[in-house]
Amino acid sequence: MKKTTPKEAGQDIAQEQVPGGAASGFNRLRSKLAFDRLVEMGAQMGLDNPLFLCHERAAKATTCIGGKEYLNFSTYDYLDINAHPEITEAVAKAAALYGTSAGASRLVGGERPPHRELERALADLYEVEDCIVYVSGHATNVSTLGFLCGHRDAIFHDALAHNSLVQGARLSGAARFSYAHNDCEALESLLKARRGEYKHAVIVTEGLFSMDGNIPDLPRIIALKKQYDCMLLVDEAHSLGVLGETGRGVREYFQIDPYDVDMWMSTLSKSMCGCGGFIAGRHDLVEFLKYGSPGFVFSVGMPPIVAVACRKALELMLREPERVHKLQAISQFFVRYATEIGLDTGHAQGYAVVPIMVGDPVVAGSLALALIKRNVYVMPITFPAVKAGTDRLRFFLSASHTEAHVRRALDAVREELPKAWEFVETYKREHADDHHA
Ligand SMILES: Cc1ncc(COP(=O)(O)O)c(C=O)c1O
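Above: query sequence and pyridoxal-5'-phosphate SMILES. Below: predicted holo structure tokens.
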């Protein structure tokens, strides 16, 4: 395991003579981070910060910011379910009955009927024995991997696995091996070379990658998991409600035996329009997590109203599969139209998440601002969320988007992208001396 160096532990800051004390020290450390630097550079260039804008109503295909209407591609209401009247009504009834809080951890504060009803519905969706619902999607991964694995184990994860999966792997103390994105040859080489050194091993991948919108070769990963005696966790945050004929995710997409994956994980914040996360799988595994996983045991239970909302969203997804079809059709159209007009959609396969590759963080930020001025709301994604040099705009599609929405947004990108490059390059030329000074 990698040792923590004094520098990583922040000792250098403690030794610095920082006016204002330790808090200022942290601020100085933070200011070295890429994100802050980017915002600061943008400010020097006269650009506003596009992050943390306040929306004044539920963000759907369009949203309202500062009293103005925008086309919205930055929230993940994939199935156009958020604010559905059936959900709002069910939530209002549940609030009257249970209030707005679970009150305590479910272990000690007890459960409310919506908790087990949601867990049963999710287990049924995956056709597995049981399910555990956590209060946050991020905490689900951190806590599950962090609790399940230990220093004698190994975790093999895709290089583009979500931060929560990587944090969970780090917390566990297990050896962590990152294999090249969606590269099963690389995974197999690692398994061949290193699996034998560890007691248990877990392979971790996503059903649909959150930054690139592409799908792993899950049948091949399952074959490797069996050959090398590993467990397998699949994070369905962006594939639940998105992939498969009825939105049942990557399992339906590949027609996979539910028990070939040990942990079907997903957040409830995307297609399910709530928040929280879950692990669906065998009953004994779920029980093990329920009595030990710290993000479940030592954290408050999901508010019953959120459990009600997610269960209702699931019911709507299954009752109205046309939502899934609409989402898939508009996502495919998005990729086709972008390609037609010369934009680069990276590895996207046309399912809900589609990047437009830019390749420079400041250009991506400047482009996003230019689009905001044209009433198109889409966020830039830069390092550290993605590898440096793969900076992009990331579009989330929804069943509520139309072809006219997509055309309007992408035509604006096509017009603004060269201008953003020109703006940033001119700025860099004109300020080259400042950087050498
Ligand atoms: C793949 C993946 N896993 C987990 C999470 C964390 O989920 P949540 O935001 O619901 O906490 C996200 C969030 O975007 C994600 O993209």
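The chain is about 45% helix and 15% strand.
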